[in-house]
Peptidase M14 domain-containing protein
Amino acid sequence: MLAQSFLLMSAVSLIASTSSCSAFEFKHHNNTELQNILEAVHQKCPTITRVYTLSETSVQKVPLYVIEFSSKPGHHQILHPEFKYIANMHGNEVLGRELLLKLADYLCERYLAGDENVKKLIEVTRIHLLPSMNPDGWQTATNAGGNDYLVGRTNKNNIDLNRNFPDLDRIIFSNELSHIEHNNHLIDMIQPETKAVMRLIMQTPFVLSANLHGGDLVANYPYDESRSGVASEYSQSPDDETFRQLALAYASKHADMSSPSRKGCGYEAFNFGKQGGITNGAAWYSIDGGMQDFNYLSSNDFEITLELGCAKYPAADELESEWNKNKDALIHFIWQSHIGVKGVVTNKETGLPIANAIIHVKNVTDNRNDEIFHDITSVHDGDYYRLLTPGCYKITAYYKGFYPQTHEQCVEAHPFQEATVVNFELRPLPVVQREIPTNIDPEYTDNDEDNSVNRQLRWFYYLNPSYTGMHNNY
């Protein structure tokens, strides 16, 4: 009897162990299997996931599927930063597609297993994964055997989606020549896949993101487009210091992206590991109409581009090895949406949140007095998120009809912790001053506010002409 009980307990234990293990298969999943994987993850983890499709399909009417991880799926939660990964933008660059499918499976699996790091990440972050932005290109590349360096790169209309976003860099560079120093939230034949992602960017207050490519091994940060128009020159953004840290956050956790001794890719075989595994986009080669710069210049989102390996279409038997190389980096990079400061902007008299308040930052570390001429805005519930490197800053919140308020805050590195909270309570101006708030810094006039805050709204309403409210879809 004792032996029978032992055998029964062992069998139950084996069944429980087997059921908790992932059934994920490392292979190249077709467009139907991609959807099935995401639905299976949702069925396993229904309380922390949601599967949805973007507003547009691909040219060949394939839905663009996203899986979301959150403690409250389908809703923006105050002080919970929003993060996204997008892969397979170039249809023949397929590794990122498989990595995001596995990442979805992994997050669910580790959450169910009680992994404290993963549980906390999901509880304090809203994570969106779009495994394939270009399913038509993937099908073309796969049908051709996945061996050609270009076949399947574009969408079915033969358009390179990473050259198809509005070229906001040109506006910014022109403003710089005219000594207009703020580049706050600034249409060609926009492809349906591009328009779908633009809507996603406008509707969701992303804080941080990355798009996953292939063909080299490097983390690439803005700007992607050169100022002078030459093929290659360092093109520094106002947040260059922060972008370098973000790129290093991924490269340093990848198995060999930052290794100076690894082999380089391509005919020139340059090893980006000799410079930490990172590069400024335009210093490598300039592109216009890229998704990376559009995110930064049209919204609050800081995006980098991840080149994940020399092979654009690696063999199926290499995928598990590539997952192991990227796993820690993929998780670590999501945590970077919690660097810097965050908080809520409210009306001091009513306590109500203020959306679209401007958050301006000055770096005062070591007696510096450096303005960072890239403001972000508070979102629907008055919450804001400002990514910053360790140091000390003067942070000012502005909104039309209110006195500005400034806090000085030092930021420290706290891995796997939430950002420092800095709240603002703005006091309304006297009624007689609200039309012309003369006591506000002249660099932040009503006209400048219109040029910064309302530019994002104009983009949103251009893409959503029948929309009646801002961010009501949270």
